[in-house]
UniProtKB/TrEMBL annotation:
Residues 33-57 are annotated as: Disordered. It comes from the Archaea. Keywords: Membrane, Transmembrane, Transmembrane helix. This is TRAM domain-containing protein. The chain crosses the membrane at residues 6-27. Residues 42-57 have a biased composition (Basic and acidic residues). The lineage of its organism: Archaea, Methanobacteriati, Methanobacteriota, Stenosarchaea group, Halobacteria.
Length: 125
């Protein structure tokens, strides 16, 4: 015979549903990586960069535009350039260099994972 639901039974049911929702949400984020669309896209680009060969070789002299400036952990200001999407940090830059300037650089070394390189400034192109 069906009777009225007891308050304890209703509370248990509600608590069970909440636990399922919380655990389900956690699992979903865990499987998806918990990343926003922008972070996911950045992660995918980083993974692709790790899997492809750099478009430059050690000793190459190339021309590239300055995208921005960054400060190295030593305090030195460096130019950030891109060659076919590959990031190159350029050291020994003059103080009057501006974003958008096209410079000549020489590739000195690859950084960890070969996802970027360090280069020396050779002059304004």
């Amino acid at each position: 015979m069906l009777g009225a639901a007891s308050p304890v039974g209703v509370f248990g049911l509600v608590a069970g549903v909440l636990v399922v929702l919380v655990v389900g949400s956690w699992l979903r984020k865990r499987v998806r990586g918990g990343r926003s669309a922008g972070r996911q896209q950045s992660y995918e680009k980083h993974k692709a960069a790790q899997e492809r060969e750099p478009p430059v070789d050690l000793g190459d002299v190339r021309e590239a535009a300055v995208h921005e400036f960054t400060e190295h952990h030593t305090g030195e200001r460096r130019a950030v350039c891109k060659i076919e999407g590959f990031v190159v940090f350029v050291e020994e830059i003059p103080g009057n260099l501006s974003v958008g300037d096209v410079i000549e650089l020489e590739i000195l070394s690859f950084n960890r994972g070969r996802t970027s390189a360090t280069a020396r400034f050779r002059g304004i192109a």
